[in-house]
Amino acid sequence: MEKEYDMLIIGLGPAGMALAAMGTAMGLKVLAIEKHKIGGECLNCGCIPSKALLKTAVVRKTIQEIERYGLKKTEVPDPHKPFERVQCHLKYINEEKTVKMFDKVDLIMGSAAFVDAKTVEVDGKHYTARRIYIATGTKPLVPPIPGMNTVEYLTNENLFHLEEIPKSMFIIGGGAIGCEMTQAFSRLGCKVILAHMDPHLIPLADDEAAHVLEDELKKDGAEIYNSTAIQGVKQDGKEIVITTDKGEFRAEKLLVAAGRKVALEGLNLERAGVKYDKRGIISDDYGRTNVPNIWAVGDCNGKALFSHAAMHQGMLSLMSSVMPFLSPFKFKYSQYEVPWSVFTDPEVAQVGMTEKQLKDKGIKYEVVKSNYGDYGRTITEEKTVGFVKVMVSPWGKIYGASIVGEAASELIHEFILAMHKKIRLYDIMLMQHSFPTISLLNKRVSEQWMMKKMQNKKLQRVMQTLYRFFAPK
Ligand SMILES: Cc1cc2nc3c(=O)[nH]c(=O)nc-3n(C[C@H](O)[C@H](O)[C@H](O)COP(=O)(O)OP(=O)(O)OC[C@H]3O[C@@H](n4cnc5c(N)ncnc54)[C@H](O)[C@@H]3O)c2cc1C
Ligand SMILES: NC(=O)c1ccc[n+]([C@@H]2O[C@H](COP(=O)([O-])OP(=O)(O)OC[C@H]3O[C@@H](n4cnc5c(N)ncnc54)[C@H](O)[C@@H]3O)[C@@H](O)[C@H]2O)c1
């Protein structure tokens, strides 16, 4: 048995990294075990490479449309080793930034497996710690479609290692990965066909926002098929044939982006007595499993599959280990809204409930909307597609915000803060927003709500009376 640690972390993705960084900052003895690469899915085959590729795509699209910006039409450049650029950025972030953050962590590169509830084994050596944090993330879910094991399909795990942009690609899945990659590949000259079983893109999103995105992806040249059943796939020479209830399609590559499954293989959770199900490791609102010293943090607990949620959970779990007496007030995961953003052009972002969720719950709400097309800044920037839509109670309590448009992923933060701190929509109106930021659309939406309220005849009478009563005599 080696020296005893305070924290033993299995997996160094966003969740494990947040735990390790905070733990060492507190002066705790931290051991981290990572079987692949520091940074996990997010850095190596998720958030970062996907955004790097999207950047190349956005630049090419801007050149394609250069005349819209008052510049002379120019030849549109072909992609030149876009994946090399992606990998180059990953290498830099990994070697120059991430690894250096963990110089105070004892790091073991290898696959961890439980021996019992207090002991973890890597390559025959045993390790223990006061608390063990499982942060092993997820893997791509490959649906049991007939023929799938006969074709060489891509997932996010090998996609960013392609050598060049294929001529054509069929994407199964219309979630965040499917949409972001549809746009990236379409704009880089690939013919993309996306099909998925849900009625609209990004199934969690506001349907109106999803339709705006669908129109834009079609303008990029993609074909989109919603509510589609994929019946089978097979290889035919250099092409993959995909049979669906909407017809047969052929493509050079097939990308599967159909959701995630929890990655617990080889961990031997049974030996530790940790309970799990299809969604992930069963844990409470602080990340505690059924075994008192073992925690499950980030994607592996199936609560919210986002990097920011994984990092946030890491912080809350550690704080609730340090100050359990404050936990019910400060460190419950569910006390904090989980926003999300999809980094397409236009971006889609959400916090709180969508209109559909409000209707399903029978909550009465008002909708107020401000359009990108009605604002000087977005008009001059050629970014007129989209809206900021806020769902509120009659007294301005914010139930949710759905944004589609330029910088939606930035605009959403004002509503996250407002919801968390119970700030009402009229308070956003009372706050100055610098002009002409795109965030000013958030203030506009609250102004519009107030204007709508002022249409009420009774309220008008009250305001007229007050105005006249207080006028200098
Ligand atoms: C293409 C794509 C784009 C994405 N874009 C975004 C985005 O823009 N924004 C966003 O918020 N989220 C995004 N996500 C989701 C995000 O990547 C995940 O939510 C996040 O990485 C989860 O963090 P985690 O620490 O829980 O797990 P992971 O990042 O999956 O890390 C788990 C780590 O555990 C290691 N591990 C597993 N088992 C063992 C073991 N037995 N022993 C040792 N180590 C082990 C793995 O090797 C891995 O490094 C994206 C995902 C994909 C696939
Ligand atoms: N910007 C971001 O925050 C971001 C980006 C990428 C991924 N992610 C995270 O990664 C996770 C995985 O993303 P994802 O896009 O793979 O999944 P998802 O869960 O968001 O969407 C799954 C898609 O696959 C389709 N699908 C599933 N099974 C199918 C089948 N048998 N036939 C046809 N269609 C099928 C669904 O209809 C849906 O469109 C998400 O939970 C998301 O949180 C986040």
TrEMBL record:
What Gene3D superfamilies would the database entry show? 3.30.390.30, FAD/NAD(P)-binding domain
Source domain of life is Bacteria
- Please report the stretch or stretches of sequence annotated as the FAD/NAD(P)-binding domain: 5-314
The UniProt keywords, alphabetically, are: Disulfide bond, FAD, Flavoprotein, NAD, NADP, Nucleotide-binding, Oxidoreductase, Redox-active center
**Which residue numbers delimit the Pyridine nucleotide-disulphide oxidoreductase dimerisation domain?**
338-439
Has the keyword Disulfide bond been applied to this entry?
yes
Instruction: Report the PROSITE patterns cross-referenced here.
Output: PYRIDINE_REDOX_1
Report the co-factor binding details.
Binds 1 FAD per subunit.
Which residues does FAD bind?
K51, D299
Which Cys-Cys disulphide bridges does the record give? Answer: C42-C47
This protein's cofactor list reads: FAD
* GO MF, any single term: NAD(P)H dehydrogenase (quinone) activity
Q: Give residues annotated as binding NAD(+).
A: G173, G174, G175, A176, I177, G178, C179, E180, G259
What is the designated name of this protein?
Answer: FAD-dependent pyridine nucleotide-disulfide oxidoreductase
Species of the source: Vecturithrix granuli
